[in-house]
């Protein structure tokens, strides 16, 4: 019997170690083997915790069978372990895919997307789907073969001896100790297996099965705030101080009081592809041309990393929420303030355009609750419209919006969300950037969207309503491509935000605003220009107000990024400390900016739970 449990332990340890090595092979670009191999040792501690959870049910059934003087069927134990291994294989395989696309471990947010498999599959090409299926089949085949060779069946019958009862009595103590992760004061958590200043190596040391279970437990807890790190009164005071920094003194940048407003939310338009923001040249010449004649906010960051987070940030002034996309909760998102509602209440015609399926991420319900009188999605286009896996391509959607705006009563507020610059980057010809690697495909797709913008603004300038219009161009989020930047860090989250059009005062055309902020700051910045109330937009600030705090909030599940004029920091929720910060800034865990960043996360999640 002892041999059986020891073989189980080593079998599962080897299983998780192989996946950890594979993870490092795929994603560790440091090239430092000496720094990478300790992840196997540190990770084994969390692996043992997972193994304890796996083995505990077997002990329970075996102990009950022994008390009943019956044999615990060996086939049931074998079936149980086969099921565990297959499910674990699927999770570990999924972890590699999620980390490839998102740069983080498999988590609760990713699992929620499985409710819409069609949309998930839209991110990969047909060839990639075939390769994934073949790869998964191969992995499952190898796993099953190893199981057959290494697995030792549970003994059919165990003689009732003193040794048996001593073993069965002490085994749960060892299992519970393994589950807990040792004798230390606090139970096992990710901070106990973190050992490096490089996040990818810490990610490698974490067991993805444990991480997903823990992440889901925190996400599904409707009462406790996992980001509470200080007295709620102190956190509230910090946020009150943050908001009170703002004033009513700011420049007026519009030439008319009630302009038409068109918001164009650009899919994955990271600053790295915009030459006007210091990015690569030649990818977005049309956007760069608009920058020369607009007001560019040059230090803007995306609070989230998915489109559903970006839309809510732009239209509701609501920063990305860890674990959850508030847009998916009709009850919660309907309570958010909305510039769509604000414009509608002020007599504006309001429309929303998206070339994909509007049922994705509850978009249909969300848009209608935000004060938009008309929603046009991919179903409004005939079969002749150019489509990719995500839906109707950008040029057709943008031109459809232009034609429809001719028919609207002015003033109008219209939002369009592009989609062509999204995996699998299957845009129409001509090919602007050749190459089959993901970075080249990303550049080519971004160049297509930019070309569509060129055609859009060329035709928009001929419209009668153009002279009364302000255009706002902003990305929904950044992207690790084309330069493979980690979206945990601020450098991987910088995006463009541009005000452009005849409604913009000539004195502000071709200028820049250096205030640090995020796209959730758009609502207050815009509403202040129109002299409308900003009640409820507590997480948004006026970027044109010199007194307003110059900072950006960048959460990503259990990491908190914060950018201010002094530099940037990365706070680990698991480790409860700063794990990285910009060079030259001697910031501590008790620094004013660190406390404010933690207060921001704590207070916002408190508000999310209360909605």
Describe this entry's structure for a reader:
It is globular, with a radius of gyration of 27 Å. The chain starts with a helix and ends with a helix. It has 3 domains: 2-220, no CATH class; 224-245 and 551-611, Arylsulfatase, C-terminal domain (2-Layer Sandwich); 252-437 and 467-548, Alkaline Phosphatase, subunit A, CATH 3.40.720. It has 611 residues and is α/β, with parallel strands linked by helices. It has helices at residues 2-27, 33-36, 38-67, 74-102, 108-112, 117-121, 126-150, 162-180, 190-193, 199-205, 208-220, 232-244, 285-291, 307-316, 330-333, 339-345, 363-369, 394-405, 438-460, 522-529, 592-610; strands at 260-266, 295-301, 349-354, 374-376, 412-417, 469-475, 494-500, 511-513, 517-518, 551-556, 559-564, 567-572, 577-581. Strands 1, 2, 3, 4, 5, 6, 7, 8 and 9 form a 9-stranded mixed β-sheet that branches. Strands 10-11-12-13 form a 4-stranded antiparallel β-sheet, with helices on one face.
């Amino acid at each position: 019997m002892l041999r059986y449990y020891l073989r189980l332990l080593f079998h599962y340890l080897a299983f998780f170690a192989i996946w950890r090595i594979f993870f490092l092979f795929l994603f560790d670009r440091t090239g430092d083997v000496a720094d990478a191999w300790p992840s196997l040792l540190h990770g084994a501690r969390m692996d043992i915790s997972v193994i304890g959870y796996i083995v505990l049910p077997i002990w329970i059934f075996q102990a009950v069978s022994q008390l009943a003087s019956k044999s615990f069927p060996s086939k049931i134990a074998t079936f149980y372990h086969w099921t565990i291994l297959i499910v674990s294989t699927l999770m570990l395989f999924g972890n590699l895919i999620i980390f490839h696309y998102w740069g983080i471990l498999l988590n609760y947010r990713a699992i929620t997307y499985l409710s819409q498999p069609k949309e998930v599959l839209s991110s990969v090409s047909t060839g990639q789907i075939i390769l994934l299926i073949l790869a998964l089949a191969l992995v499952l085949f190898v796993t099953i073969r190893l199981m057959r060779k290494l697995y030792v069946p549970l003994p059919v019958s165990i003689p009732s001896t003193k040794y048996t009862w001593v073993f069965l009595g002490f085994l749960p103590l060892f299992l519970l100790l393994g589950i807990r992760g040792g004798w230390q004061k606090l139970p096992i958590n990710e901070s106990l297996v973190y050992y490096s200043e490089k996040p990818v190596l810490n990610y490698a040391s974490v067991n993805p099965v444990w991480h997903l279970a823990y992440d889901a437990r925190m996400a599904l807890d409707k009462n406790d705030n996992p980001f509470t790190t200080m007295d709620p009164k102190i956190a509230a005071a910090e946020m009150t101080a943050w908001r009170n920094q703002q004033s009513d003194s700011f420049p007026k940048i519009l030439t008319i009081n009630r302009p038409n407003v068109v918001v164009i939310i650009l899919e994955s338009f990271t600053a790295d592809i915009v030459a006007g923001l210091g990015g690569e040249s030649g990818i977005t010449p049309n956007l760069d041309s608009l920058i020369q004649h607009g007001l560019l906010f040059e230090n803007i960051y995306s609070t989230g990393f998915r489109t559903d987070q970006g839309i809510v940030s732009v239209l509701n002034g609501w920063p990305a929420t860890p674990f959850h996309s508030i847009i998916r909760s009709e009850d919660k998102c309907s309570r958010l303030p909305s510039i769509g509602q604000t414009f509608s209440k002020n007599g504006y015609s309001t429309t929303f355009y998206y070339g994909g399926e509007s049922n994705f991420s509850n978009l249909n319900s969300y848009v209608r609750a935000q004060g938009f009188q008309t929603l046009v999605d991919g179903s409004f286009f005939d079969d002749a419209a150019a489509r990719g896996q995500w839906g109707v391509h950008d040029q057709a959607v943008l031109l459809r919006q232009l034609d429809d705006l001719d028919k609207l009563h002015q003033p109008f507020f219209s939002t369009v969300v592009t989609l062509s610059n999204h995996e699998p980057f299957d845009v129409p010809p001509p090919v602007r950037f050749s190459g089959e690697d993901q970075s080249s495909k990303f550049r080519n797709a971004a160049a297509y969207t930019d070309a569509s913008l060129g055609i859009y603004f060329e035709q928009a300038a001929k419209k009668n309503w153009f002279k009364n219009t302000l255009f706002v161009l902003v990305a929904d989020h950044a992207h690790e491509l084309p330069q493979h930047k980690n979206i945990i860090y601020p450098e991987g989250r910088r995006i463009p935000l541009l005000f452009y059009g005849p409604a913009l005062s000539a004195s502000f055309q071709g200028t820049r605003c250096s205030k640090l902020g995020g796209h959730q700051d758009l609502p207050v910045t815009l509403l202040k220009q129109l002299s409308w109330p900003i009640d409820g937009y507590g997480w948004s600030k006026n970027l044109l107000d010199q007194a307003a705090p110059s900072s950006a909030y960048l959460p990503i599940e259990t990491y908190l990024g914060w950018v201010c004029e002094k530099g940037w920091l990365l706070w680990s929720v698991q480790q409860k400390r700063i794990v990285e910060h910009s060079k030259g800034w001697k910031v501590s865990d008790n620094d004013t900016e660190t406390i404010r960043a933690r207060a921001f996360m704590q207070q916002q999640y408190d508000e999310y739970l209360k909605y």
